[in-house]
Amino acid sequence: TALRSVLGCHRVVSNICINKRDGTPNNTIVDELLYAERYAIERTNAWMDSYRTILNRFETTVRNWESWNYIAFMIILLRKCLRKRKV
Question: pTM value?
């Protein structure tokens, strides 16, 4: 695809799953372990987007914005730990 070509020109390894609905044969290999890590990062980014302070970036200093990110990470981790503890 065009995206894989552009990424290849910049020496970026594309680990994008094939669109099974496309119907065209494709020999692209996807590293499943790397893709699972990518999914975890994308999911965390989506959780971070739920925090309005971070998303809208009301803070004027990098230090304050960074602190809000750490608070969001701590909340996400705490919720995950509490959820595992209940099970």
Answer: 0.50
